[in-house]
Amino acid sequence: MTAQASPSIATLIDDRPMRPSQWMTVLMCGLVMFLDGFDTQAISYMAPHIAEEWDLPRAMLGPIFSAALVGLMVGYLFFSPLSDRFGHKRMVVWSTAAFAASTLLCLIAGNVTTLVLLRFLTGVGLGAATPSAVALTSEYSPKRWRASFVLAIYCGFSLGFVAAGLAAGWLIPAHGWRSLFWIGAILPLALVPILFLFLPEAITTLTRPGADRDVALAQFRRLDPAFRPEDLPHAPVGETGARPRAPLRIILASNLRFGTLLLWLVFVINLGTFYAMQSWMPTILTDLGYPTGTVVATTTIFTVGGIVAALIVGPLMDRVSPYLALAGLYAAGFVCVGAIGLLLGSGAAALLATSFLAGICVSGGQKSVIALAAVFYDAQVRSTGVGWALGIGRVGGIGGPLIVGTALGAGLSPQGVFYMLAVPMLVMVAAMLMLSANARRVRADASRAAQEAPHG
After folding, report:
1. Rounded distance between C-alpha atoms, residue 303 and residue 325, angstroms
2. Which of 125, 129, 180 is nearest to 156 (CA)?
3. What is the C-alpha separation between 34 and 217, in angstroms, rounded?
4. What predicted TM-score, i.e. pTM, was given to this entire model?
5. Residue 55 region, left (φ>0) first, then alpha (ψ -120 to 50), else beta?
6. Domain residue spans in the chain?
7. pLDDT digits (tens, 9 = 90+) for 90-135
8. Residue 219, phi then psi, degrees to nearest 5
9. In terms of CATH architecture, what is 7-231?
10. Could you give the count of Cα atoms lying within 13 Å of 196 in the half-sphere of its Cβ?
11. Across all residues in the chain, what is the average pLDDT?
12. In this structure, which topology does domain 247-454 adopt according to CATH?
């Protein structure tokens, strides 16, 4: 594992009340995530109007939808390691500026090819910003609240989805589809100077060899006015005397490889289940004869359940165990997702209640496992760890809806779809229990090594 910052610096975060600068950091990262969610979802409302104005066949909407999603994966996988190397603040600021600029350029796109390219670049910026915002929030959150704050800022992403729908309903009829691009560009452009001026640099960056000690001292004095220059570390925070290893190599090193692969498995299954249910639930319910209002409400409340989960799961992760909290959540998900299948054809009230509970487990689990990744990885590789988990998880997000479509085409009943989606929840329960056992073993090894060190 990589070394941590000096105890005196760690104490500023973990052992003291939250300072205003820390709350401001969480708020600004939450705003970045909100704008990320807004931009990701807004294209869904614009696309039909773009197709109508440009006289496009419906099949051409697919590339428009997927371009940003592919860009997200590229941003997660290839730019998150740059954040760990060059600084989270720099990546958040430049990524926000980049997706704002590419969104603004979408206003002058005159054909599908240009629009798809710009949406891809927008997705890269969005994907680069997310792991950095998560990592920065983690560094400035006390350990006792770390998972809760990561869950809180990721709820901003879901709220951005909701805001995009509300804005689309108001703006598109009055001002046309381009108005959403204006909002999606102007808001992040306005946020960029605020981020530049007030967002702090990551502690890991401030305490690296060669960092500006005056800048670091000024930042740490915002956390504690009594912080002294001699409290700054005089040795490299990471591995000394050697060239720093690439963050991706660190998260796949022998001491982290098992946990990393288990996390990737959980991300793939969780995102696969989430997107399968989000994509197919409206169609399945419509085919079963439910009225449109019930279909919309059931699908929406599934997402709302994920937001509510942050209020429940975050504190449990911080106070009990992140692994056991998620194991319990996924075990409940097995019951709730299966119960949707059992209740198909019943009244709307029972279906809404079950969908809400399933959303807490599936949509909430998706947010919670991101918080788990932020807790699992050290500060020096946190952005890479979170980014690669999100990027690998996109494989599930792509494959989940395809698997359900294939199963329905092969004759599986709607009830059987939800029974099928419930089973992988048990795999995630097992993965969490294995991660918990692995964490205990790592702690025991570290404790034993510390005890034996003086006798070496």
Report:
1. 20
2. 129
3. 31
4. 0.82
5. left
6. 7-231, 247-454
7. 999 999 999 999 999 999 998 899 999 999 999 999 999 999 999 9
8. -65, -45
9. Up-down Bundle (1.20)
10. 10
11. 86
12. Growth Hormone; Chain: A; (1.20.1250)
